[in-house]
Design goal:
The structure holds two protein chains of two kinds. Chain A is of the alpha/beta class. Chain A has four domains: 125 residues, Rossmann fold (3-Layer(aba) Sandwich); 238 residues, FAD/NAD(P)-binding domain; 152 residues, FAD/NAD(P)-binding domain, CATH 3.50.50; 52 residues, 2-Layer Sandwich (Alpha-Beta Plaits). Chain A is built from 20 helices and 34 strands. In chain A, α6 packs across α7. The longest helix of chain A is centred in the last third of the chain and has 22 residues. Chain A starts with 5 loop residues before the first strand and ends in an 8-residue tail after the last helix. By secondary structure, chain B is α/β, with parallel strands linked by helices. Chain B has three domains: 170 residues, FAD/NAD(P)-binding domain (3-Layer(bba) Sandwich); 54 residues, no CATH class; 158 residues, FAD/NAD(P)-binding domain (3-Layer(bba) Sandwich), CATH 3.50.50. Chain B has eight helices and 21 strands. In chain B, strands 1, 2, 3, 4, 5, 10 and 21 form a seven-stranded mixed beta sheet that branches. In chain B, a hairpin with a 6-residue loop joins β17 and β18. The chains are: A alpha/beta, B alpha/beta. At the A-B interface, α10, α12 and α16 of A face α1, α2, α6, α7 and α8 of B.
Amino acid sequence: MSERKIGVYTCGGCGIADALDMDQLEAAAKEQKAGFCKSHDCLCSDEGVALIAADVAAGEVTHPIVAACSPRVMEDKFRFDGVETIRANLREMVVWSHPANDEDTQMLGDDQVRMAIAQAKKSMPPEPWTEGAFSETVLVVGGGYVGLTAALEAAAAGHQAILVERSDALGGMSAKWSKVMPHLPPYRDPQENPVAGLIAKVEASDKITVMTDTIVTKTNGMPGKFEVELTRAGTPSAETVGAIVVATGWRPYDATKLGHLGYGASPDVVTNVELEGLLGDGPVARKSDGKAVKTVAFVQCAGSRDPAHLPYCSSVCCGTSIKHAIQMVDADPEVMAYIIFDELRTPGTAEEFYRSAQEKGVIFVKGKVEKVDGDLTVTYHDALLGDDIPMAGLDMVVLATGMVPNSTNVEAPALELEDEKLVPLKDDINPAAPIAVAGYKEGVDAPEAPARPEPSMPEGAPILNLQYRQGPHIPMLADGFADSHYICFPYETRRSGIYTCGPVRRPMDMGEAGQDAAGAVLKAIQAIRNVKQGKGLHPRSGDLSYPKIDLNACTKCRRCTVECPFGAIDEREDDYPQVNPSRCRRCGTCMGACPVRTISFDNYSVAMINDMAKAVEIPDEFDEKPRVLILACRNDAYPALDMAGIQRETYSAMVRVIPVRCLGSVSMLNASDALSTGYDGVILMGCKSGDDYQCHFVKGSGLATERMGKIEETLKSMMLEKERVQTMEVSIADSKKVGKLIDDFVATIDEIGLNPFKGF
Amino acid sequence: MPNGGPNSQAILVVGGGIAGISAAVETAEAGYDVILLESSPVLGGRVSRLNRYFPKLCHPTCGLEINYQRIRGNPRLKMFTMATVAGVSGEKGNYTVTVKTTPRHVNAKCTACGDCAAAATSEVPDASNYGLTTKKAAYLPHEHAFPMRYVIDPSVIGTPEADAIKAACKYDAVDLDETEQTFDVTVGAIIWATGWRPYDAKNLTAYSYELPDVINNVEMERLAAHDGPTDGKILRPSNGEEAKRVALIQCAGSRDHNHLAYCSRICCLASLKHAAYVREQYADADVDIYYIDIRAHDKLEAFHQKLKNDPQVTFHKSKPAAIVEGPDGRPVVKGEDTVTRDVYARDYDLVVLATGMEPSTAGFDLPVTLSQDDYGFIVPHVEDTDGMFSAGVAQGPLDVSMSVQSATAAALKAIQAVDGA
């Protein structure tokens, strides 16, 4: 870039000029050596925008500073090609949240301008990382219904696909199904199984390469350039792919663990999967003697919703038993089918399927099955009678067993891993953990959440065998499913460019899983198309910056490689960190992790944040005006502060706010440096941490809390009180609380007194 | 050709709730031009009016904030609010869509300074609080409004108040003469993400929705919301007292042939969440949940189990027969327990009807023929023939995560349609 030209444009609109002395803002800008400062009474008007645009076009300014409203509004109006617009928030965070024409409000406004100039002096235009060749091929792992669908969807979007299946044939579990649940109106009758048709389409596609008897034995690289080793019958081959869709599906819960439900005691106690093999056009012949089954009982939740087996609901078993009962009754109207259930779960339009079964004479019995005997007597607990009721005379008992995700390949042995490599895994890989459930505050007698066992390593071999510092597995969270933790972004993966879908992610039926496959493929091709332009993936979509490490200063402590929430940083053979730019999601957690502060982004750097903090004018101790630095997460805390302004909530004018990408990007040194330069307190404001964390970079606020937990000693050595640094959990909905939190903190500072370092 | 090349037409997304936003953003980030239409003045739809999501009890505005950042940062995505589809002609790959906009009476010059609201004197029902409160006739829909632009209620147009509002605006942003407009856009595929409305509880005559302390589940979300009518305190609408004895009535309309024949999927979890809201606020609260089946699918079962462990939350397997007004005006829930066969009549501070989701398209003449089921849901074709897709609750009763999944899938189908057309 040629010469940096910083120009400040102050806006007097929306009450800014009524509350602040605009000349004084200009003086602050000049004193910080801005090239010029221009004022307008409405910068977002056509005329105001034209004023800036003309300066940009004339080459007068490379870093226009718009000192006006929040960066959360008018972004499109103040975007000018070829220059980086910097915003100083004078409206929401100054005049809307502080008294007009007040000395402290003015000082706050002046400092907003100073901080923006400091930012403009250090911000560099990001150079996108686009080195080498990028692949557009999608690798799909798993050749069942979901994998077949994913491969076809990728091909239909114009991409080559490689479909890998560990068994010798395509089709997976779903190939076994006689018929499937209805997903289309009128939702009443079992439908034809689509899998054979999908296999034929896949085999006919010139865009899809099918590899059966094949597993993925190594995955290296990053989105756009994953290098995978595919091993077929012991022979490895190498492929380069752009993104990976994992559709490894599920396996039925091991029925041999269900002895109390009669499994093994009689050949006529079968699982729902085994029943599929017995269903045909005619009546079902039972295994023991070939006799046509006339009475059958379906035992729901056989293993599911049972803390001794699967704590979760497998979602599909109610619908599957209904399908089976309908198929049996349709084939032989004399069949008496009983479905014994605790809660019958046919959500959405599946209710119509339930109703259809009732109309066909299937009998639904509310009760919890206690045991099934070898003579096929089913004993269930009837809550109405408060008694155990035997149901005898059955020809067959079907156990509605649930789904276990294939988050690993249990047909292959687990890898031996060194202990050191296991350390970072515990956050990501905990197949034993149920989902974290939020709710209830302190002071309320909260009921016990379902027990959470100690983290454990999964059984079986990793699906992709990632050659990542953070281990070979795809992260698996709740109950061992390879799912993300997010409601609003179900594809927000912790391993960029790798998307799971179907029942490996969550128990789901084929109707939903087919859509899930399409969704995962969309994310895969989106990743492929963006990383080759050097663009970051969700949630900082399109961000061209990426972390740069000055290895001359690096001490090889490896903290960045361990703390990255996305496993983006590996270790080189010489122990220096190696950033894989297209795996990076641009949160800056590595920057906050680095103890020697040698990791920065072009437009978000250690020096920039430091200089912004230092640009604030710290009044001397006789002024009795404390200064508190707030490092606020852009996604939740900063908008909450903004909305406090929109609601005209007021709070102390002693605070100075610097937005950060994530609290994970904040180091303990940000706090201690601020205190050593005269700030009286520091607040780290981010979202909720803990098991039910809300951070969209997984663990930012958790890391901040952990890091600041260690600051006490540093403060002690500086002879400072620990109350001067506080991590606050603020949600985006705290617009009416955040002001009080700030005021309470400033009151605490007033109590303990100003920082004795002031003036040094 | 892939990648939204010169031959690819733009993709239209109808509806700016969570499904439409997701479909639009995912499509645009895959490299395509997108036009997003929203009928109300702001994006966010139903979820933006929820207090929190189950089971994490996190705030929907958090994810919306990220999505709004993605929209603001992506020049390929154009959005129009107060805009609906008036007509569609053409075919897959080349549709001409007539868009109709209703007047906001505030133009793009609006800075959201709020001077118009200060000048307004009359009050109108606050749609963002489901009419539980009123607001000024010149208003910002809510604090998280996107776009952040004021609206002038049509009821004041032609009055001296409107002139005063216009006079108060320093930025020439008030346009009292704005009229309904139509314009055409050319697109290659259309994603219908038209969402849902709460089933009208007035149809459930036995449940006395007209009593002040009988509310529906979306109103309960507003009572619990920090920017709702009670600043987040769960209070009895009749007298403002704390609502500590609360009944939650499942399947209020759903799974009932006289109302909604299907299961609305989300209401069980929503009520479990409401039980948690009440218990969070009042340590001595008692919550009763009346249900047919608790449908806490997959891992959400853990949320169900946690609430079942709470001795102050009681589950009654029963569909109540009636809700009546008690002698002191309190609602009384009457019925028979299916398990114990006990006949009960219990009075409460507050009764919440877990009303289901009815597709916005039900009973509504769409401007184009789509494949709809008997309930009005727009169901997917087995094979795409027309470049028309549905996402979110327009497609069926889905929760938020499933809506986003379906929206992401619809984004893929739409780009396949425009690339292949």
